[in-house]
Design a protein that fits this description.
Layout (H helix, E strand, L loop, with lengths): L1 H15 L15 E6 L14 E16 L3 E6 L11 E4 L4 E7 L17 E4 L4 E15 L10 E2 L4 E4 L1
Antiparallel strand pairs: 1-2, 2-7, 3-6, 3-9, 4-5, 4-8, 5-7
């Protein structure tokens, strides 16, 4: 009976003092989260083949978490050489190549910051205590043209997490 009463009090407290839906609950020592991403590589591009796709992965890894159903919002910035709607990679010679990042493999929704493009809510599992990690695929499409010059093209995109 005592266990039932303690569980009932804890549940009642959780119902009446619930954090905002997008908040990540931290233990008394606080939370810290690291974000990492794999490089998205298109390998050799054939400008005559049209748009080509690839994918990578974003990993969010948090410690100090005490959460029943952890979730957070992941947004992507525009990159160094373009904007969210028109991302560009640049070669060492300064030539630009159009590409973009998407939330699905169908490349129908641009992954952005919520104002431009869509953000993605990531979640993973139930009852994360101490450590929580989640992976999310990011899909990319590059659009070379016959005017695309040979070279190594790169860009850097900032990943932001909000909880």
């Amino acid at each position: 009976m005592i266990r039932f009463l303690i569980c009932s009090i804890a549940l009642a407290a959780a119902l009446f003092v619930a954090p905002p839906a997008d908040a990540l609950i931290c233990s008394l020592g606080g939370c810290s989260c690291d974000v990492s991403a794999t490089q998205i590589q298109f390998n050799s591009l054939n400008p005559l083949a049209g748009a080509q796709s690839s994918q990578g992965e974003i990993t969010v890894d948090c410690t100090g978490v005490a959460e029943l159903a952890p979730t957070m919002l992941v947004s992507l910035q525009g990159g160094l050489y373009g904007s969210i709607n028109a991302r560009k990679m640049q070669s060492g010679a300064g030539d630009l190549l159009n590409y973009n990042l998407y939330t699905t493999s169908q490349a129908s929704v641009v992954w952005g910051n919520g104002t431009t493009g869509s953000t993605v809510t990531v979640s993973g599992g139930l009852l994360a205590i101490g450590h929580w990690s989640v992976n999310r695929s990011v899909y990319a499409v590059v659009s070379p043209t016959v005017a695309t010059k040979p070279g190594v093209y790169t860009d850097t995109v900032v990943v932001r997490i909000d909880w």
